[in-house]
Amino acid sequence: MGIDVYLRWDGQTEKERQAQYTGFSIASGHVGYLRESYSATPFATYVLFPENNRKFNPFVVPNALLIKRLPEALKFTKERYKGDKKAIAWATKSIKDFVALHGKLEKQGKNPKIAISG
């Protein structure tokens, strides 16, 4: 069990959507997917997306707000994977990539939305 975060946007292709089904990878932010399992805390996704309704109803968050929340989310990620340098590197890069992709889509006018399950 875990938290699955998907980025959705206007004009998203089926290929782009399928790329997000990664087998629960913690290193897939570049395709618009974040994953945290419930087996460890704290949860960076709770910091990035406090609006989460956990009902997979997509919601809008401005990229500027995600950027503002990013340092604390990265801090939580490092704490969560304490002692596992490889996992810290993968997970922090993934979160940064997710926020960067969100910002790129927002600039392109593709109305990025966040959908969370778990």
Count up the helices. Answer: 4
Report mean pLDDT, rounded to a whole number. 92
Radius of gyration: 13 Å
Q: For the report, how would you describe the main beta sheet?
A: 3 strands, antiparallel
Distance between the termini: 7 Å
Strand proportion: 5-15%
**Uncertain stretches of 5 or more adjacent residues:** none
The counted number of beta strands is 3
Order of helices and strands: EHEHHHE
Identify the strand order in the major beta sheet: 2-1-3
| Helicity level | 40-55%
The domain tally reads 1
Alpha-beta content class: alpha+beta
Bulk shape: globular
Describe it.
With 118 residues, the chain is of the alpha+beta class. The protein has one domain. The chain has helices at residues 14-18, 44-48, 63-80, 85-107; strands at residues 2-8, 33-37, 113-117. α3 packs antiparallel against α4. The model has no long low-confidence stretch (mean pLDDT 92).
